[in-house]
């Protein structure tokens, strides 16, 4: 039977194993939103199971991480976390000085607010970052998200905006996000055969996670937010990506991890409403901010894999004798960097 080079064709697209399934999922969510529910059962689970797939991804990726690399996780995660949040704070302070709490009411920037910009920049898409680093980076770089997960939720956005309150951080949620990774690390370090067994599943999980992630992204949101939403998504990638890239390089990385963190988490779209609930002064800005942040999720989910693949390919070309993940694990040996 004649063979069709599906895998090879997908890998010709920058970040193909991530972006092609993601786009397929987003097209289904946009034009056939009820299709998964119509078929139900495993088909619906395939399009809606991003969290379970990510949980398995955590365990398998954790198994490939050497416990001796823990100091590296803290260093890398701390650098990326500090740079991402620090950039959002600087931009938030500058915008807050000129705009205050209210959104712009007229012109091409109507609806733009300090709240929208800070919420979009503060929170990294953990699943996207982990999937990208699983494909292009060191396995230890994936574990760095255990520190970066502190970005999740409205707390840091409220701090950035100067809102006093909600000082209590939801630690059960934070711990719950890290436990699968820790479980994988425990299994992999106790038994090398378990490490080899689980680590092989990492590249296989990427397209399935991407499909489920895309199935939660309605492309109509980009259209509704218009050019402003697309522009804000581009701003997130550029304004956070540049400092993150250099911070990663300065800390001994290749720059790939920094670029992979230049995106917006899906749960960030809920932050404006949570901030407005805590402080009614942001009520007027919350509605437009929610739409703009949702557009950023879509735009950065498309741009971030492309940019990450490009930086990884460029680094590999410049360091032909050194793999992109300069401490290769067996998982990486079984994957090809985008051609």
UniProtKB/TrEMBL annotation:
One Pfam match, given by its short name, reads KdgT
Q: Where are the transmembrane segments?
A: 12-33, 45-65, 77-98, 104-121, 142-163, 169-190, 197-217, 223-247, 254-277, 289-309
Q: Which GO terms describe its cellular component?
A: plasma membrane
Q: Which domain of life is it from?
A: Bacteria
Keyword entries, A-Z = Cell membrane, Membrane, Sugar transport, Symport, Transmembrane, Transmembrane helix, Transport
- Protein location: Cell membrane
Query: What Gene Ontology terms describe what this protein does at the molecular function level?
Result: 2-keto-3-deoxygluconate:proton symporter activity
The record describes its membrane topology as: Multi-pass membrane protein
Catalytic reactions on record: 2-dehydro-3-deoxy-D-gluconate(in) + H(+)(in) = 2-dehydro-3-deoxy-D-gluconate(out) + H(+)(out)
What InterPro entries does the database record attribute to this sequence? 2keto-3dGluconate_permease (IPR004684)
**The keyword Transport appears for this protein:** yes
Query: Which family is it part of?
Result: Belongs to the KdgT transporter family.
Q: What does this protein do?
A: Catalyzes the proton-dependent uptake of 2-keto-3-deoxygluconate (KDG) into the cell.
What this protein is called in its record is 2-keto-3-deoxygluconate permease
Q: What is the originating organism of this protein?
A: Pseudomonas abietaniphila
């Amino acid at each position: 039977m004649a063979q069709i080079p599906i895998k090879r064709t997908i890998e010709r697209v920058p970040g193909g194993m991530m972006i092609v399934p993601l786009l397929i999922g987003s097209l289904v969510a946009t034009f056939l939103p009820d299709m998964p529910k119509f078929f139900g059962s495993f088909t619906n689970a395939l399009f809606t199971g991003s969290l379970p797939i990510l949980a398995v991804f955590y365990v398998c990726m954790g198994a490939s991480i050497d416990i001796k690399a823990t100091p590296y996780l803290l260093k890398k995660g701390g650098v990326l976390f500090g740079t991402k949040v620090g950039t959002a704070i600087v931009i938030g302070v500058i915008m807050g000085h000129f705009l205050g709490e209210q959104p712009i009411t007229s012109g091409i920037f109507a609806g733009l607010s300090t709240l929208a910009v800070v919420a979009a920049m503060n929170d990294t898409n953990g699943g996207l970052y982990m999937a990208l680093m699983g494909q292009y980076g060191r396995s230890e770089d994936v574990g760095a998200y255990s520190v970066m997960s502190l970005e999740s939720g409205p707390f840091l956005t409220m701090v950035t905006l100067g809102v006093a309150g909600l000082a209590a951080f939801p630690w059960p949620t934070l711990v719950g996000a890290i436990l699968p990774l820790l479980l994988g690390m425990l299994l992999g370090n106790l038994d090398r055969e378990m490490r080899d067994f689980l680590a092989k599943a990492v590249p296989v999980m990427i397209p399935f996670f991407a499909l489920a992630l895309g199935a939660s992204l309605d492309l109509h949101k980009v259209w509704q937010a218009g050019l402003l939403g697309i522009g804000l998504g581009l701003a997130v990638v550029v304004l956070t990506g540049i400092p993150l890239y250099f911070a990663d390089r300065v800390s001994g990385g290749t720059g790939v991890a920094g670029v992979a963190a230049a995106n917006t988490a899906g749960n960030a779209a809920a932050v404006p409403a949570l901030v407005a609930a805590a402080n009614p002064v942001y009520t007027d800005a919350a509605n437009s901010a929610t739409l703009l942040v949702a557009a950023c999720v879509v735009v950065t989910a498309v741009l971030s894999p492309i940019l990450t693949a490009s930086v990884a390919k460029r680094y590999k070309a410049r360091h032909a004798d050194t793999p992109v993940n300069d401490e290769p694990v067996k998982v990486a040996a079984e994957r090809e960097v985008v051609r």
